[in-house]
From TrEMBL:
GO terms for molecular function: hydrolase activity, acting on acid halide bonds, in C-halide compounds. Pfam families: Hydrolase. It comes from the Bacteria. It comes from Geodermatophilus saharensis. InterPro entries: 2-HAD, HAD-like_sf, HAD-SF_hydro_IA, HAD_sf, PGP-like_dom2, S-2-haloacid_dehalogenase. Keywords: Hydrolase. This is 2-haloacid dehalogenase. Belongs to the HAD-like hydrolase superfamily. S-2-haloalkanoic acid dehalogenase family. NCBIfam families: HAD-SF-IA-v2 (TIGR01493), HAD_type_II (TIGR01428). The keyword Cytoplasm does not apply.
């Protein structure tokens, strides 16, 4: 692939959202709550909350606001009652405290030798900065939903990357563990690379091993670096 920049989905592709949210939930909610089930219940509200923005039912707000709004329903689903505002705030910040997959930092470090790197995530700017500082993610800049004022898979998010990087869309590659994200990027002319993350949802369901429509399918970011000659 003749690309000059790689942009990355973050939740599930670069960081392990499920383990991180469950870890913080266990700390903040105590042993009476199934922390993994809570993480899954909260994540299940991720897409519906963004769809209300995409569909024009409400103006764009950063992901932290959507997470805060969906928190009471997620707590109720796992039998937890309302929590004080300070605990709710700390739970929202769980999404700022996720750890990278073990291959992420080594792979990104290798890739940065040849390519401009940026997240192209539905996470807000401060969230992405916090993840980078916590995990040592070597981004060159931050792109994504809050920069574009839209949530993926709205085309404006994908279009913003080549525009801001001053590259043709074909020279920007989206790297993601989600085939729907990659399909939306291809529809806007971006190159795509699929990363298999079998443990993203705790092993159930297991995502497909490859994306036959992607330019590359790999099992890690280190494998991606090797495939791109880094």
């Amino acid at each position: 692939m003749d690309v000059g920049a790689l942009v990355f989905d973050v939740f599930g592709t670069v960081v392990d959202w499920r383990a991180g949210v469950a870890r913080e939930a266990a700390r903040l909610l105590g042993p009476g709550v199934d922390a993994a089930a809570f993480a899954d219940a909260w994540r299940a509200r991720y897409e519906p909350s963004m769809q209300r923005v995409r569909g024009g039912e409400r103006p764009f707000v950063p992901l932290d606001a959507l997470h805060r709004e969906s928190l009471p329903e997620a707590l109720a689903e796992v039998g937890a009652g309302p929590v004080p505002d300070d605990v709710a705030g700390e739970l929202v910040l769980a999404w700022h405290r996720l750890d990278p997959w073990p291959d992420a930092v080594p792979g990104l470090t290798r890739l940065r030798r040849r390519f401009v790197l940026a997240p192209l995530s539905n996470g807000g700017v401060r969230l992405l900065v916090d993840l980078a500082r916590r995990g040592g993610l070597p981004w060159d800049l931050v792109l994504g939903a809050e920069v574009a004022g839209h949530y993926k898979p709205d085309p404006q998010v994908y279009d913003s990357a080549p525009r801001l990087l001053a590259l043709p869309p074909s020279r920007v590659c989206l790297v993601a563990a989600h085939t729907d994200d990659l399909a939306a990027a291809r529809a806007r002319g971006l190159a795509t690379a699929y990363v298999h993350r079998p443990a993203e949802f705790g092993g159930d369901p297991v995502p497909p091993a490859t994306d036959p429509h992607a330019d590359l399918s790999v099992g890690s970011l280190e494998e991606l670096a090797a495939a791109l000659g880094c």
